[in-house]
Design goal:
The chain has 343 residues and is an all-alpha fold. The protein contains 13 helices and two strands. The protein has a two-stranded antiparallel ribbon with strand order 1-2. It is elongated. The termini are far apart.
């Protein structure tokens, strides 16, 4: 019997070898596949946790940015009111100064300059702070992920030095910008009489004309760049972390994307202001009627509009909207993602 088994094994030994190889290979492949699957599963889990940590860090950076914007808004309002000063002129008018007509003309120019500067300056400040805070946030995220890399280390003094550069925009930068806007507005409204009655459509046309004129002035005098109004003049280049981040900030602010973002955001700002004026203008007219009158058909004298335009800089309607505008939020998110993914 054993001889028959040996004879059977001898005749079919090749088949046994092939079968053994197939079975052994199958077991090996199964174990290999299980190992690879576990490695893939672990990698996916790590990536998911990393994305979650990154998202939480970005959301924290976003909250910090919004709080920073809100905290510096009063300082910007103060600069606007001092640079485009209407209070001193109003006081002269109350004291019955002899050059009453000239003073009213100055008030007219200041009123329109204020409303345009209000929209532009707040938009520019938001663009600047979203750029700076997201660059800094991305660097801090990379530093947390690579604690052994000393080049990524940013101490609090470096962080404060970088962010403090924005203080230029709240003082000298805004002052210079307001003066430029005032020159543009002066030429745009010189033929506008204080006795002219303006409808909402008329106001929209005037503000749009000023908007186009300001954009043209920026393009002709500053090549469309707003960097000179937001950051102090650049110093000699060096390799310090602050200089590197400042250089990156300037590069972003000089980009065509920022030019387009500023233009589209200012258009939204004008629409926002006109919506508020549509609520206010019916209260300024002398005409009373029981019938409904469309806001676009209501005319208000320029002299009556001046105080309303002057006081817009103290309202938060545009500031609140700026924090929610999707293109501006996406702009900041793209900066964070780009800089946090480097290296």
């Amino acid at each position: 019997m054993f001889s028959k088994i040996r004879e059977f094994a001898r005749r079919h030994h090749r088949k046994f070898l092939v079968l053994g190889a197939v079975v052994g290979g199958g077991v090996f492949l199964k174990r290999f596949a299980e190992q690879k699957f576990l490695q893939w599963q672990e990698k996916e889990m790590n990536q998911l946790m990393e994305r979650s940590r990154k998202q939480q860090h970005f959301e924290s950076t976003e909250r910090t940015c919004n709080l920073t914007i809100t905290s510096v808004t009063p300082q910007l309002q103060t600069t606007l009111s001092k640079t485009l000063d209407s209070d001193s002129i109003t006081l002269l008018l109350k004291n019955k100064a002899p050059n009453k007509k000239d003073l009213w003309e100055q008030l007219k120019i200041i009123a329109f300059s204020r409303i345009v500067s209000y929209i532009y300056s707040h938009t520019m400040l938001v663009i600047l702070l979203r750029t700076q805070v997201n660059i800094l946030g991305a660097y801090l995220y990379r530093a947390n992920q690579n604690p052994s890399d000393v080049e990524l280390e940013l101490n609090p003094d470096v962080q404060n030095q970088f962010l403090s550069a924005s203080s230029f925009s709240l003082s000298s930068g805004t002052e210079e910008f307001c003066q430029m806007v005032e020159r543009v507005v002066s030429s745009q409204v010189k033929c506008l009489s204080l006795k002219d009655s303006l409808t909402l459509v008329d106001l929209e046309r005037i503000l749009q004309d000023i908007h186009h004129a300001v954009d043209l002035e920026l393009e002709q005098q500053f090549n469309g760049s707003i960097t000179g109004f937001l950051l102090p003049p650049s110093q000699e280049s060096s390799s310090t972390p602050v200089d590197k981040m400042m250089s990156e900030t300037r590069e972003i602010l000089d980009s065509s994307e920022v030019k387009e973002l500023l233009t589209s955001s200012v258009k939204m700002g004008l629409t926002c202001i006109l919506d508020k004026l549509a609520e206010t203008m019916p209260l300024l007219t002398d005409k009373t009627s029981a019938d409904f009158v469309h806001p676009n058909a209501i005319g208000v004298y320029v002299a009556k509009l001046i105080p309303v335009l002057n006081n817009f800089i103290y309202q938060d309607v545009w500031n609140d909207l700026l924090l929610r505008i999707d293109p501006l939020r996406t702009f900041g998110a793209n900066i964070y993602e780009s800089f946090s993914s480097q290296g």
